[in-house]
Design brief:
globular; mainly beta; GOLD_dom_sf; GOLD_dom; Jelly Rolls; 4-stranded antiparallel β-sheet; FYCO1 protein
C-alpha cells in the first residue's frame, strides 16, 4: 500500500474512507509529509466493537519500525460507541503512520470508517496592513 500524500488527503473531499481489518491483524495508513507546520487531523469510528489506535513517525521508509518515534501510544478506543477525533502537528518531514490494531480480536474483523484532513498554517504576511 502506497503512502498517502498531503495532496491526496486535500483531495479527499468530505467523504469517509473505509478500512477493513481482519481479526488478529492491523491496518495502517501511512502519510508522506514533506512540509513542516501542517496539522494532520483524523476522525474515525469502528464497527463492530472497539479498535486500538496509534500514530508513529518514521524519518524515511528505510527507518526500522522499532526505531520509529511513537507520537500517540497504542490506545484502545471505544470507537464503536463514539467518534474518535485527533490531530498531530508535523514537526519533521517524513512518514506519519496511523495504525488501527485489531490483533487483540481473535475472531471479529472490523471496519474502520475514517476521514483525514490536512491544514496548512496561516502565515500572516502583513499585506492587509494599511
Amino acid at each position: 500500500k502506497l503512502p498517502l500524500t498531503v495532496e491526496e488527503i486535500l483531495n479527499f473531499g468530505e467523504s469517509n474512507r473505509e478500512l477493513f481489518i481482519k481479526s488478529s491483524t492491523y491496518g495502517i495508513i501511512p502519510i508522506t509529509v514533506t512540509e513542516m507546520g501542517l496539522t494532520i487531523s483524523w476522525i474515525f469510528s469502528s464497527d463492530p466493537k472497539s479498535i486500538s489506535f496509534s500514530v508513529v513517525f518514521q524519518e524515511s521508509e528505510d527507518t526500522p519500525l522499532d526505531q520509529c518515534k511513537v507520537l500517540i501510544p497504542m490506545t484502545r478506543c471505544n470507537s464503536h460507541k463514539e467518534t474518535i477525533r485527533g490531530q498531530v502537528k508535523v514537526r519533521n518531514a517524513g512518514i506519519y503512520t496511523l495504525i488501527f490494531d485489531n490483533t487483540f480480536s481473535r475472531f471479529v474483523s472490523k471496519r474502520v470508517f475514517y476521514h483525514l484532513t490536512v491544514e496548512r498554517p496561516v502565515i500572516y504576511d502583513g499585506s492587509d496592513f494599511p
